[in-house]
Amino acid sequence: MTAINPKKPVPYSVSGSLRKKLWNSKTLILMCVPAIIYFIAFSYAPLPGIYVAFVNYNYRKGIFGSPFVGLKNFDFVAKSGKLWMLTKNTILFNLVFLLLDNALAVIVAILMKEIQSKSFRKVSQTMMFLPYFISQVLVGLLVFSLLNSDTGFLNVILKGLGAEPLRLYKTGEPWPFIITLVHLWQKTGYNSVVYFAAIMGIDAAVIEASMIDGANGWQKIRYIILPSLRPTIVILLLFALGGIVKGDFGLFWNLVGRNPTLYQKVDIIEMFVYRATVSDFNFSTASAVGLYQSLIGFILVLSVNTIVKKIEPDYSLF
Amino acid sequence: MAKHRDDDMLDSVSKVKLTASDYVIRGIGYVFISLFAIACILPFLIILGTSFETEDNIITYGVTLFPRSFTTAAYELVIKGGTIWSSYLLTIILTLIGTGIGLFICAMTGYALQRRDFPFRNAISFFIYFTSLFQAGLAPYYLLMTQTYHLNNSYLAVLLPLMISSWLIILMKNFAKSVPHELTESGKIDGAGDFKIFMSIVLPMLKPGLATVGLFLALGYWNEWYQSSLFLQNMDVLPLQYRLYKIVNEAQSLKNSVAAQYVTVSNLPTESLKMATAMMTTGPIIFLYPFVQRYFIGGITVGAVKG
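^ Those are the sequences you sent over. The predicted structure of the assembly is below.
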């Protein structure tokens, strides 16, 4: 349409004085205003409240009227060993998650590609996607129905085989494994989509040529599919590293959050902060731990982005 | 088997000879994917089966895929209790209003931020993006919502925080990039203002983006329990998933969820009630998601890697 229009297009208003820029783009600015107000109200407005981490919070005096105590709140959680335990758990879980998540997602995507029947592929993909669509509350109930020692599915089977029932809700030991399994169960359908799209993007002629050259199935995966997935894998792993101090709170909370015998072994930063805020109303400690988490997360994302910018500038976040 | 014939036909088309290992991998593929796919839906089938089982049988024999004696008693109790419909209505209203407004704001902002002739797009993009880099944390947020905004026990505490996210705006921005810039240009030449161009030219072209972002928003509202657990603890009518959360975790909520006149507390079918409530709160998603999942897949591939 524009090509046959003889009139010259209106020039971009990127030059000129600030006032002129503002005036020329007033409509576009107004279109962004609701979102800007939103982020001010719900993301920027809480920032000054971080100060609560440095006071001994008193409900009647409010955040800024409460006595300043410096780093005492940080000291308290650090000295008790709690902070180290939470950090260790959070990072270990996330490391395991990011390695297994991506490994399993790649395997599923590769095997999915091998499946020739379209309807089989469609149906199985739909089935694998179901866990992504349900609430974490239901995930908690599903796991309880599978594992509880009185009526749980696992113990129904064990009983049928004449074995002793497993009392999984009585001890914390097995929960790191259970949580990891449930996490994989829930996220793999979703995670494999990115890899499947990347595999489908590989030029079919390249794969065919390798087969004419006599590559067998394993060689095809090893020398063609995996190398072409490498950039995607590296980028996703790096970004996952950036989020390594953020936990999958909803999952943890709905599986073990309300049961102290279970969460002792698997407590993560977010669960501690949630309990301190909602059950104990200990806002100062909660905020100290939360700020510690935010700062580490912030530094990590910045570092990861710097690395990504070096190896794959197109994918850097900013 | 039919599946194998399918394979042979496809192979003969590509005219490349498959080695033995290709068939091994393919076999592993069918077996592994089948097992994993079944594992993904099995827990739901167990909940579904058990929701139709009598309470006595659940206590004696445990949960089951195939109920020994089929009964709809648990569903009848949930429905007779009546309060589930208020929860349904509340959840539907929150989902519709939140998704509608959130979608409009995301689309408007996403479109403006990808306009190459908008001099403030980088500044505003960073202002929005920064919120996902550094957060105040739960405690300051909780204090702000309850002490300053006084949103404790207000449905706005659920409606507002889920409405927009920097990720959804970036996703929408990426979708808007695929609308040809020439359309905006020609609108300008015709003398239309930026908002008019957005409403009458860009919005109709943005349907895939609107569907994807809208569905992410709607799913977020439907499955919401977190904000509710922070701010709606003392409300009578609860969003569906938070209702389920309370029923699963608190015995008292379970009793409150059914009308007292229909059943005495001592013979309340606790287990089957949980299962029936779970099925009723999640039912619409299970029926709908197979038809809309392609939009989510589109969203993941558009928005996952590239920010």
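Chain A has one domain: 77-315. Chain A has 14 helices and no strands.

Shout if you want it in another format.
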